[in-house]
Amino acid sequence: MKRTTYSGLVDETFIGQTVTLKGWVQKRRDLGNLIFIDLRDREGIVQLVFSQEFDSEALKVAEELRNEFVIEIEGQVTARDAKAINPRMKTGKVEVEVHNTIILNKAKTPPFEIQDDINVADDTRLKYRYLDLRRPEMQKSLMIRSRITQSVHSYLDDQKFVDIETPYLTKSTPEGARDYLVPSRVYPGHFYALPQSPQLFKQLLMNAGFDRYYQIARCFRDEDLRGDRQPEFTQIDLETSFMSAEEIQDLTEGLLKRVMKDTLDIDLELPLQRMTWNESMARYGSEKPDIRFDMELKDMAEAVKDIDFKVFTNTLENGGLVNAIAIPGGADKYSRKAIDAKTAYIERFGAKGLAWVKVTEEGFSGPIAKFLNDHVDVIKEAAGANVGDLILFVADKASVVRASLGYLRNDIAKEMDMIDESRFAFLWVVDWPLFEYSEDFDKYIAAHHPFTMPNAEDVHLLDENPHEAHAQSYDIILNGYELGGGSIRIHKRDIQEKMFKALGFTKESAEEQFGFFLDALDYGFPPHGGLAIGLDRFAMLLAKKDNIREVIAFPKNSKASEPLTNAPSSVATKQLDELSLKINEQDMK
Amino acid sequence: MKRTTYSGLVDETFIGQTVTLKGWVQKRRDLGNLIFIDLRDREGIVQLVFSQEFDSEALKVAEELRNEFVIEIEGQVTARDAKAINPRMKTGKVEVEVHNTIILNKAKTPPFEIQDDINVADDTRLKYRYLDLRRPEMQKSLMIRSRITQSVHSYLDDQKFVDIETPYLTKSTPEGARDYLVPSRVYPGHFYALPQSPQLFKQLLMNAGFDRYYQIARCFRDEDLRGDRQPEFTQIDLETSFMSAEEIQDLTEGLLKRVMKDTLDIDLELPLQRMTWNESMARYGSEKPDIRFDMELKDMAEAVKDIDFKVFTNTLENGGLVNAIAIPGGADKYSRKAIDAKTAYIERFGAKGLAWVKVTEEGFSGPIAKFLNDHVDVIKEAAGANVGDLILFVADKASVVRASLGYLRNDIAKEMDMIDESRFAFLWVVDWPLFEYSEDFDKYIAAHHPFTMPNAEDVHLLDENPHEAHAQSYDIILNGYELGGGSIRIHKRDIQEKMFKALGFTKESAEEQFGFFLDALDYGFPPHGGLAIGLDRFAMLLAKKDNIREVIAFPKNSKASEPLTNAPSSVATKQLDELSLKINEQDMK
């Protein structure tokens, strides 16, 4: 029989109708001559009633049913007794009197219950992912993700973007993260690489004149795994020709507005706030500020420059910064011990200490209060502090001050419950530095990537002082997460060559790795720019999860393996022989 | 300045308006004080006019312009003189008088012209793919492909399908084609595999209760390359729970109708024709018949069983077939020599000969006419032949007869121009055998894949005589190409185990390779089925191309390499060391 509707949609408008439903047994209550079954499908749950009165055969079948059996039923929708009504369920006013039941498949007892609040090891959830995904919150999360992609397709189609697939088997360009390699059988000793992003291909599509490209593209990075990283991830990838950075941001805002509406029925107000990277760093100590709360970093230089506290004055004299944040109501909340723990924590950012005072009716209290008490009003005003607040100071070079206070700002906002979790706060951070210093590589690397166009007035810096240049680049931030980023790209060969040089390439190494792309710049490459949004993270934030694994159907675990299929696995010698490969057995110990 | 419209869209409705256009110089005609430029963008070409009269600065810039320069212009749209009108162009009634021009980028002379009819080596086209893709026919082909995917997203969203991504780094299951492997760095000596299709994952998503899944999914097969194969290809992949084969076919027909309308504005009439595999083989000698023309295979057994021609009668006595096709007007068209060439060709299908007669007013002519001339009317009628036709006979076992005549039918239809190239002839071929004999492997393999459900009445054959079973499977054929295929899948563990056994798996080998999937069948796996459509092939057919490379932005060449980036390439020793791999140097010779 053909299903007439989903279980989860059977509400009072169905009363009196005969329905055919198919789904899973969520729960069974056996009262002897009356059996209640909660029948579950992707849309929700409806209550079935089996009774001698309705059908004795069906009642007999119902006696056999156990959790997670798959059944098909036919029955009549009736109103529940007033006292049996469950107002929290869409189907809570009705039940279905079953006349006919077929068991479509049986089920062993699952290793965990199919319900939202389970306490199960991550790897168990992943090993039985097909059961984990039956849980309503996982269903909902993946449906939100699907709504996002549908919304993206629809909006970008309206905007005349062309959906173009770029290769997944491509060339290894070991800049940035590590590539996943794919050995070639046809060319022994040669490898394809899985793309870290479609960057060069999408730029080439602009050179090919497609004008507006997009793709929901899988990307691959063989990085050491952290909290929310996956070996493969997905980005909403777009590129346009002949548009300015601001025009691309406007277009992206339209996309975000559509997605928020389609996905969560939220009306996003446009335009979004745009802030330079310099301002973001100064005000929030972060290039991805969470603007759902204030507690901004305050420059205390003017307020403290004349006081007799060497930690501050020496720092200022050496060109450093003294910044503070004022924690509303923090004076009572934070003990000396709690503050000491914060101080220890921010050592990882290079901070040598955390100065603090509590603001009382009488002035400041705390270890350094005596140095500041002659300047209470000035300092309170500069820090934006009121009586009852805790003021935290860091004095150091700018990068240390911002990393430390930027971290504390987020950390304390969570502890103090200052964040309105219902909000979705978007923000553009624009005008990034072109380069950033990498501790890992001990050199300057591209802040975004080597194809980012410097600001027009900074192009000359590429010759003289490249690391001071800022770029026509922009990140879109959501609730303190980097949701995506983009830039205007370089479309002139001479600028691209200077960029490679500034990144430490020789003429030869640039040619070897990117020669095909440099050549492409010779043939009428149009001005162009674009953006990529991390789909996994976007879905995670809209689904209000704290790990992208919760919005990926079959993710890898934190060790890059897949407990369901046991990938990666060993393979047959024949497979390796065909690829002209041998395993270095020493590493297998 | 912001572009106001695309060049290719400037028609007579723009007359009098000032437009800003950005694009490429397609052609330049310099008449001294008057310069004409054809400006090209993705929507087409418009004629620009530069003159002292309009702007002398712009005229000066125009003197510098060469083909493929990228420019921005501002100008006024005017009507062309009546005699200058080009009725074949959308923009042929207008031209743009240019007041202002900027050169956005220069271009070297391209290695081939940016126009449709070029005669250039395939690898040159691929090396400069960004130029090749500027050609209008490539633009159009990729836009058709994009229209298809947009249409698929929109239709399946309407039908409540959930777009879910499945992993690209997964487990190697070396059944069927060869896997591409991806070495793991974290687990030395272990490998992921790139998926040949999302088959098992999409079935698991049905087990997870998503009810309707789809994905436009990249698939990877390391096969020996032939005409229209690529190492990576794309399929429109869908799966549903609780639906019958016919319901899935109906739903797919809705999808095809939408795509044909959105892409080519063609109204596809539904329902499509459905034909069993047995009938398709008997009538067309093919499981993917081109039904744009008739010339069907005719069973000649009744007509020839009593004649005195041993080739026919012995074949029939030994249980073989005698089939014929009648080629309308073929008597004059085909010489004895031409027929001999066909005879030689079909030896590859195992045919030992090709008997033939020409139908004249007086009866049959040709080498075997004397054996048949007493039965002219009966044979003519059985073969469906008329005077002037050529009748070709093959007498052999069924597989040889069908392969030979099935091939000849297509071959001759092309030669005789019998195919209406404007038609799109869809057809379902249903009820396939569950297994097929593979010459390559010298054993029975799954005709579709090991997860295909036998017909209900054939399930018992799995124990007794599995290779006679037919399956709940269906292929969708378009113009003689297999566009896609699908089936109802096995959702019961006992049937799946029998299937593996029939395919030659031991209990242990099935467990090792597919144990996780067998386990999943224990937990309330719903009845389900689905389908996959080859997107590359679909786009190729709708764009009227004869190779899928023409509808892939950056395809591999016929040797699985990519002349643009030179993938695959050698990699650094450090990369291999990290993967615990060594190259077998012997193979590098």
UniProtKB/TrEMBL annotation, chains A, B:
<dbReference type="GO" id="GO:0016740">
    <property type="term" value="F:transferase activity"/>
</dbReference>
<dbReference type="Pfam" id="PF01336">
    <property type="entry name" value="tRNA_anti-codon"/>
</dbReference>
<feature type="region of interest" description="Aspartate">
    <location>
        <begin position="199"/>
        <end position="202"/>
    </location>
</feature>
<keyword id="KW-0030">Aminoacyl-tRNA synthetase</keyword>
<dbReference type="GO" id="GO:0003676">
    <property type="term" value="F:nucleic acid binding"/>
</dbReference>
<dbReference type="InterPro" id="IPR006195">
    <property type="entry name" value="aa-tRNA-synth_II"/>
</dbReference>
<dbReference type="InterPro" id="IPR004524">
    <property type="entry name" value="Asp-tRNA-ligase_1"/>
</dbReference>
<dbReference type="Pfam" id="PF02938">
    <property type="entry name" value="GAD"/>
</dbReference>
<comment type="subunit">
    <text>Homodimer.</text>
</comment>
<dbReference type="GO" id="GO:0005737">
    <property type="term" value="C:cytoplasm"/>
</dbReference>
<dbReference type="GO" id="GO:0006422">
    <property type="term" value="P:aspartyl-tRNA aminoacylation"/>
</dbReference>
<feature type="binding site">
    <location>
        <begin position="534"/>
        <end position="537"/>
    </location>
    <ligand>
        <name>ATP</name>
    </ligand>
</feature>
<keyword id="KW-0547">Nucleotide-binding</keyword>
<dbReference type="InterPro" id="IPR002312">
    <property type="entry name" value="Asp/Asn-tRNA-synth_IIb"/>
</dbReference>
<keyword id="KW-0648">Protein biosynthesis</keyword>
<feature type="binding site">
    <location>
        <position position="448"/>
    </location>
    <ligand>
        <name>L-aspartate</name>
    </ligand>
</feature>
<dbReference type="GO" id="GO:0140096">
    <property type="term" value="F:catalytic activity, acting on a protein"/>
</dbReference>
<dbReference type="InterPro" id="IPR004115">
    <property type="entry name" value="GAD-like_sf"/>
</dbReference>
<dbReference type="InterPro" id="IPR004364">
    <property type="entry name" value="Aa-tRNA-synt_II"/>
</dbReference>
<keyword id="KW-0436">Ligase</keyword>
<feature type="binding site">
    <location>
        <position position="221"/>
    </location>
    <ligand>
        <name>L-aspartate</name>
    </ligand>
</feature>
<dbReference type="InterPro" id="IPR045864">
    <property type="entry name" value="aa-tRNA-synth_II/BPL/LPL"/>
</dbReference>
<dbReference type="InterPro" id="IPR012340">
    <property type="entry name" value="NA-bd_OB-fold"/>
</dbReference>
<dbReference type="InterPro" id="IPR029351">
    <property type="entry name" value="GAD_dom"/>
</dbReference>
<dbReference type="InterPro" id="IPR047089">
    <property type="entry name" value="Asp-tRNA-ligase_1_N"/>
</dbReference>
<dbReference type="InterPro" id="IPR047090">
    <property type="entry name" value="AspRS_core"/>
</dbReference>
<dbReference type="GO" id="GO:0005524">
    <property type="term" value="F:ATP binding"/>
</dbReference>
<dbReference type="GO" id="GO:0004815">
    <property type="term" value="F:aspartate-tRNA ligase activity"/>
</dbReference>
<protein>
    <recommendedName>
        <fullName>Aspartate--tRNA ligase</fullName>
        <ecNumber>6.1.1.12</ecNumber>
    </recommendedName>
</protein>
<keyword id="KW-0963">Cytoplasm</keyword>
<feature type="binding site">
    <location>
        <position position="482"/>
    </location>
    <ligand>
        <name>ATP</name>
    </ligand>
</feature>
<keyword id="KW-0067">ATP-binding</keyword>
<dbReference type="Pfam" id="PF00152">
    <property type="entry name" value="tRNA-synt_2"/>
</dbReference>
<feature type="binding site">
    <location>
        <position position="230"/>
    </location>
    <ligand>
        <name>ATP</name>
    </ligand>
</feature>
<dbReference type="InterPro" id="IPR004365">
    <property type="entry name" value="NA-bd_OB_tRNA"/>
</dbReference>
<feature type="domain" description="Aminoacyl-transfer RNA synthetases class-II family profile">
    <location>
        <begin position="142"/>
        <end position="555"/>
    </location>
</feature>
<feature type="binding site">
    <location>
        <begin position="221"/>
        <end position="223"/>
    </location>
    <ligand>
        <name>ATP</name>
    </ligand>
</feature>
<comment type="function">
    <text>Catalyzes the attachment of L-aspartate to tRNA(Asp) in a two-step reaction: L-aspartate is first activated by ATP to form Asp-AMP and then transferred to the acceptor end of tRNA(Asp).</text>
</comment>
<feature type="binding site">
    <location>
        <position position="489"/>
    </location>
    <ligand>
        <name>L-aspartate</name>
    </ligand>
</feature>
<comment type="similarity">
    <text>Belongs to the class-II aminoacyl-tRNA synthetase family. Type 1 subfamily.</text>
</comment>
<feature type="binding site">
    <location>
        <position position="175"/>
    </location>
    <ligand>
        <name>L-aspartate</name>
    </ligand>
</feature>
